[in-house]
Amino acid sequence: MRKPPFVKISIWRTKTLPELKLVFPNAQQMNCGGQVISEIIETCCAHDFTDVVLVHEHRGVPDGLIISHLPFGPTAYFQLLNVVTRHDIKDKKTVGTMPQVYPHLILNNFTTKVLATRRILFWGKSENGLYPLKFSPNSSFHIFPNRVALLGLRVDSSVWHSHLGHPASPTLQFLISHNKLPLSGTKVLCNYVCHSCPLGKSVKLPFSSSMSVSTSPLELIHSDVWSSSNKSISGFSYYVLFVDDFSRYSWIFPMKLKYEVLSFCHI
């Protein structure tokens, strides 16, 4: 059975630790001190860690990253260049609070996906917790207020039948031709049979008149069992209803099989 991730972060200094704790929120941290890498790996293996992240620093600036999957690897080595952490930024308002600017470390087969152009699309300051997009006049991105662009797609007449409230074929043909709705076919399907229309338009016969009179609750109980055309998310296909003749109080019990009605008769 595959173990859940249990990450140990080893670092020589503590200033970078808050940044890494955001990337690995469930990890445990450890100050390397005078330990060598082999001793750290042996300690992590002895305590059932699945991964270890080693951050190497030079004068307080991270310059190397080692990620190893325990106990037999693989191990990836990364060189960190021009790293700037949050505690190095003097104006904290430009980057927002910790939850607003969440760092993401995306590794796929130990390679980082970076766009080939390395182009920055947008940048700006946070204003009241939001990041508004402001375009310069010379920008290649333009915003036209009160302008809407729509893309039309030709669909089958059965789709229009569902979108327009399940009208009859003559009504559907009139709506499509009068409003010039995009249609994938050449004409409306006259012999199309909708699955929902017969179910929605069917009428159940009323109950016959009853001469029975109840004078107290639970003296007379009416019961009915019916099935659903589609199973519910929990897998129920049948329902049994009990109605108290005196108080009109009702009980509804879902069932997966019809014979389960017998289990409710003793209630």
How would you characterize this protein structure?
By secondary structure, this protein is α/β, with parallel strands linked by helices. It folds into three domains: 1-122, Anticodon-binding domain (Rossmann fold, 3-Layer(aba) Sandwich); 157-200, no CATH class; 221-264, no CATH class. It is built from five helices and eight strands, in the order E-H-E-H-E-E-E-H-H-H-E-E-E. The strands form two sheets. A five-stranded mixed sheet has the order 2-1-3-4-5, with helices on both faces. It is elongated. Residues 99-115 have low confidence and may be disordered.
Q: Whole-Å distance between the termini?
A: 46 Å
Major beta sheet, strand line-up? 2-1-3-4-5
Could you state the order of secondary-structure elements as H and E?
EHEHEEEHHHEEE
Please count the beta strands (DSSP E, at least 2 residues each): 8
Q: CATH class of the largest domain, anyone?
A: Alpha Beta
Largest sheet at a glance?
Answer: 5 strands, mixed
Pfam family, one: gag_pre-integrs
GO cellular component, one term: small-subunit processome
InterPro entries: Brix, GAG-pre-integrase_dom, IMP4/RPF1, RNaseH-like_sf, RNaseH_sf
GO biological process, one term: rRNA processing
